[in-house]
Amino acid sequence: MAGRLGKVIRRCCLTRALVTGAAGFIGSHVARHLRDGGVDVVALDDLSGGYLDNVPEGIQFVEDSVNDYGSLQALFRDYRFDYVFHLAAYAAEGLSHFIRIHNYSTNLMGSMNLINLSVLFDVKCFVFTSSIAVYGVGQLPMTEDLTPVPEDPYGISKYAVELDLAAAYRQFGLNYIVFRPHNVYGEHQNIWDKYRNVIGIFMNQIMTGKPLTIFGDGEQTRAFSYVDDVAPAIAKSIRRPEAYTETFNIGGDRAYTVNELATLVSEAMGKPVSTIHLPARKEVKHAVASHIKVKACLDLPDPVPLRIGISRMAEWAQRVGGRPTKVFSNIEIPSGLPSGW
Residue 21: enclosing H or E segment and its boundaries? Predict the structure, then answer.
C-alpha cells in the first residue's frame, strides 16, 4: 500500500475508525477523543496543511491523499473500518474563488472516493465535517432546516458532499452524520497559513513582529468555537443512533467582531494592539448559527469562554514557535486576489 507509516502503535479492539485530516486541526482532536474512547484509530493525512507532531500518540499514521483511490482502496481492504470520520479538506473559504479546480478536486472528489469505498466495504457510519459556509448570505440565525445557498466554491463543495451522502443513504443505506462547525480555533490549528483561521493568523503575525491585518472595517462578526467544544461531540456521535442521517450546526453561540478578536488575541499574546486595515473582501458579513438541534441530541461539554480558549491557544502557539508560512503556489485566477494574498 502506498503511503508512509509513522507512530505505529496497534491496539486490539472491536471498533476501528479511519480519520482523514488527522494531522490537521480538528481531525487530530477527533482522533484523540476516539482513541481515548477505546476506538482503534488509523489516521490519514497528506501533510499538505497538517503536521506529523499533531497526530496523537497511540495511533497508526498513514501519509497519503484522499485523492489516491488505489491507496485508499488498499487501506479499506486491509483495515475494514467500522466508521469513517472525514475531516480532510483545504478549508480556505475566501481563497476557494481563486483555486476552483484545487478546491473541487480536493474537497469534493476526494470525498467521493471515501463515500464509494465506505459503501463497498460496509462502513457503519460516515461522519462528515461540512461548514456553515453552506448557508451563504442573509440566513440568520443559521438553522439546519434552511435551504443552503453557498456563496463560494468551498461552501458549494461542502454542500455537494452533504447531498451525495443523502443520496448514498437512500440508494445503499450508508448511514451518515453531518456536522457544520464554524470558526473553530485552538491547539494544533495551522497558524502559519495566511489564507485562513483569523485567530491563528493574528498569533503568527504577533510572533513575527507584524501588525494584525484586518479586512474592511473589522465589524464583521463570527461566533468562535474552541476545538474541545466541538471535537468530543463529533467523536462520540457514532454512539448515538438517533444522530444518524442528521445534520448539526456545532460551535459557539456568542458573536464577536474581528476588532474585538484582535484585542483579545493581543492581550493573550502579551503584545499591544497594532492593526492595518486592508480593503474588504467579498465575504459573509455576519455569521451566527443556532445550536438548538445539536444540544438536544448530543452531550456537549460546557463551552470554554473565548478569552480562556485564546489564552490556551496562545500558550501552545508560543511553545511551538514559528514555522515557515505556506504560500499557495498554484493560484488559478489571480484577478481580484485580496491584498496580502
Answer: none
* 102-136: pLDDT as tens digits: 999 999 999 999 999 999 999 999 999 999 999 98
Contact criterion met (CB below 8 Å) for 66 and 44: yes
Residues 6+ apart with CB under 8 A from 30: 19, 22, 85, 87, 231, 234, 235
Report whether 56 contacts 28 (CB < 8 A). yes
Q: How do residues 242-286 score in pLDDT, each as one tens digit?
A: 999 999 999 999 999 999 999 999 999 998 878 999 988 877 788
Q: What is the DSSP letter of 244?
A: T
Contact between residue 22 and residue 16 where contact means Cβ atoms under 8 Å apart: no
Within 8 A by CB and 6+ apart from 80, the residues are 16, 121
- Write down the pLDDT at residue 5: 44
Question: Taking the CB of residue 80, how many other CB atoms lie within 10 A of it?
Answer: 10
pLDDT of residue 70: 97
CB neighbours of 293 closer than 8 A, spacing ≥ 6? 143, 144, 246, 248, 249
Amino acid at the residue 5? L
User: Confidence band (pLDDT; 50, 70, 90) for 323?
Assistant: confident
Secondary-structure percent of the chain, ordered helix, strand, coil, rounded to 5: 40, 20, 45
Cβ atoms 115, 164 nearer than 8 A: yes
Find where cell 454512539 sits.
239
* C-alpha count within 13 angstroms, C-beta hemisphere, residue 73: 5
**Nearest Cα to Cα of residue 152 among 289, 283, 324:** 283
Going by C-beta distance under 8 Å and a sequence separation of 6 or more, which residues neighbour residue 255? 221, 222, 223, 286, 287, 288
